[in-house]
Target: asparagine synthase (glutamine-hydrolyzing)
Amino acid sequence: MCGISGLVGPNPITDRHLRALGVVDRRLCHRGPDDAGWWSAGPVALGHRRLAIVDLSDSGRQPFRSADGSVVVVFNGEIYNHEELRRRHRLTVAGRCDGAILPELWQRLGTGMFAELRGMFAIAVVDTTVDSVTLARDPFGIKPLYYTGTPDGTMMFASEPRPLVGVLAAPELDRAALRRYLAYGGLSRDQSPFAGVHSVPANGWVRWDGATRRTGGTVRDDLFDDLPRTSPAELRDAFLTSVSGHLLSDVPVALLLSSGLDSASIAWAASTLGARLTCVTVDIDGTMGEGAGAREIARSFGHRHEILSGLPDDDLADHFFASMQRPSIDGLNTFLVSRAIAGLGMKVALSGVGGDEVLAGYPHFRALRYLPLLRIAGAARLPGALVAGGGSNRRRKLGHLLRGTAGWDAAGLAEVVRRVRFDDEIDALLPDPGRETGRAAGRETVGPPGPSGPSTAVALSVNEIEGYLGGTLLPDCDAYSMGCSVEIRVPFVDVPFARAALGADPRRGIGKRGFAAATGDATLKRIAETRKRGFNLPMDRWMRDGPLAPVVRRAGQPDAPVTGVLRAENVAAVLDGWRTGGVAWPRAWSVACLDSWLRSLRSSLRTGRPQVVDHHVTTDAAV
Model:
């Protein structure tokens, strides 16, 4: 795991370019405090920050180069099947590091190599034989990669978007991204919060020849197509294979253990494979209630267990918002457990993130069976008062579901369930509302419902994988874990296993009970029968009189940065409504969170407030 950066220009790079890249590289040092590497030639330069996990020797240092020196690679992530690829393609590269195979594999396969990599990755490949730079991300977008252009035609890229903002003339927020954040509490999977800074698409690659952007391509075309009809034994084996790969490490591996099925399943798999882990449960001020159950799970599978407790310290908010790359109302729990892992002196932790999406574990998967009834009720125009009449957010969501605002199908269900705000509330906050149209801007369709799409569990899982998992959970995992110099690995978010799980019961979903039954383990079956519990923080209490109270108070100040992008009077109304109990905490937190993120950004860049602009990405323009 590490941080990568680089640039490619139309002309040979200058000292000014290298100084700019050096600033970007230094702002990534938290991603790789163990080592740093550089390479430059002609119009291209690459930088790397290393978090040494696999092959701690010098042979694991980056950039990696082919034997003839014509291909140079920097890489962020883990390739779990690198030994298999060495054998299959008879690679001759020395050393044990997983990323060391990439230059030679590129020479054999070109962009076709990306589809053969099993793991999480963001990769930059310089091929001097054709004067190209290619950037790519793994199929689920676990690892991020961003790029931007400078006035002289140079393209710069980095593992995080915030360092790239410093090379722009002035930081500007993308208006569509802001609207989506207000709607859902996070951005879409391939969205950047900044105008002029773009994300390499998940499951995609993009190539530059000099300063001209060429059309890119897809890493895997079969990600959710032609799913196998998986038996319980095949599903069990697929999960054990995934966990086995994710255990690849030359340093100790931890497990983020709750009392729920997802993390317990990883504990079972590791034990079955003969691995002994340090299981870590974070029990904040005794309110989580996960400690006793997690201790019993760790004991039953023969793992060591650590319970870390205590209130967050005074620097919690500053470190949290400095780590936040994209505004998100989620992720504080991920930050806390990552900081706990770092406090133990560990670098790697396994997590059950992705289990709910892949195994159809969220409660709203059970609502799929009621969609036909919603269509009937909607056709009878029953929900009009619910939609138009205000009330609680839950009531408004029900009204929109009945009305079919986003469609009476899996996609519409996912969109409405994930809403934090609807259009009228967003319009009240934005200074100049109504300039965006369509779902891409975070707005639901408000006309008559169109034809419904698929309503299967697979369809809902794909929406959750691409939406909530890809847009919130995975970006948060990367930002907050790497902000603590920790690598979080997610065995459920593995292409072969996810395809096996989705194919086990495409119509209804395998479910947590079905998955536990497939493992054949009595402990997991018992856990699957209990009520689902998550690692939920006491957010409302912390915002009122705990460690997050100063964050909320700052957002209410007359000169708060958030009032530069949202209407000050309505910001105040949201915060006042929450204080009096009329507004749920997520809406108030989204305003306060955005304010502190802007403060952190302004502090790190030493510039004025970012402005909000419309941003349109073209696919064939010069960068």
Remarks:
- The longest strand covers residues 71-79.
- Residues 539-613 form one domain.
